[in-house]
Amino acid sequence: xxxxxxxPLDDKTLKKLTALVIxxxxxxxxxxKALRRDRRLHNxxxxxxxxxxxxxxxxxxxxxxxxxxxxxxxxxxxxxxxDDNRDxxxxxxxxxxxxxxxxxxxxxxxLQTYKKACELSMRSEDMRRYRVIEALxxxxxxxxxxxxxxxxxxxxxxxxxxxxxxxxxxxxxxFGIDGLDR
Length: 182
Known about the structure:
It is built from 7 helices and no strands. With 182 residues, the chain is mainly alpha-helical.
């Protein structure tokens, strides 16, 4: 096998390669943006789907012995933990509870902001979109999209469009500038 010598690229080849690399980089950047946007939208839906459970978790989280109602529970849990991981486990539970509490408080605040924006809007579909989110995720007894369509006297497809519009708007409220489709 002959050894090939390295020759410098001519200007034409170099320009083609540069354009190709820029094009590939641009496409990858767009794919990454779309993936991030999809993830935020997915996270918005997950926050709403699990909203009531997250609220309940905030209310019921136990990460300190002073929160136990029965001292025996503390000793049973304490016996299961080794000295090495006892503080780490309790701190981890506490950190998770605090993060959940902050996120739930943020979601509650943004839902109120979204509701006010819908109320101030002169468009009836904006208020309907809030009612759809409320009926699907926030009400004590949630409804299905079919039930909501019947209650709102609109087609089922309208409810799904309202859901998508509300999720997109709420992504912006929940995640700020990162929720924008840039």
